Coenzyme Q (Ubiquinone) biosynthesis protein Coq4
Amino acid sequence: MRDYLIEKLYEHTKKPYQKYFKKNEPWKIDKAHLMDYPENSLGFGLGSFLFKNHFDIQEKLEDHDIIHVLTNTGISVYEEIGMQYFLLGNGKRSLYLYMVILSGTVFYPTQLKYFINQYKNGKQALPFYYLDFSKMLLMPIHSIRQTFKIQNS
C-alpha cells in the first residue's frame, strides 16, 4: 500500500516538476538509438536500462535514469528514495529531492540504514549530479564511475 501511495504521489508531481522546475532542453534521442552506442558506453548503458525496465525516455528527466545507471541503483520505491539520499550526499539540493526524502523516510523507516549508506556513498563520490550527461553518452561507464569515485549501490 505504501509503494502505491508513493508511486501515485510521484505520478501527480512529475508533470508539474518537468514543466515548471526543469529548465534543461529535452535530449533529442530515442532509446532504440542508444543501443547503437558502444557496448560499455553511458549511452548504451542508458538504453539497456530503459529496455530492461520497459521504460521510455522521460523528457527533461533523462538525468534521473543516468544516475540509476551510474550508481547501479534499482527501481523499487525504496531504492528510488535511496538514490535521492545518494544525491543529497553528493551535494544536490532541490525541493523535489527534499520532498522524496521526507516522505520516503516516513514511509520506510525500516530502510533508514540503507538510506544512510546511500547518503554516505554520495558524500564519498565527487560531485557529478550537475553534469550535462547528454554530452557524455560515448564515455565508458567505468571511466565515469572511476573519475567521480562512484560506488555501486
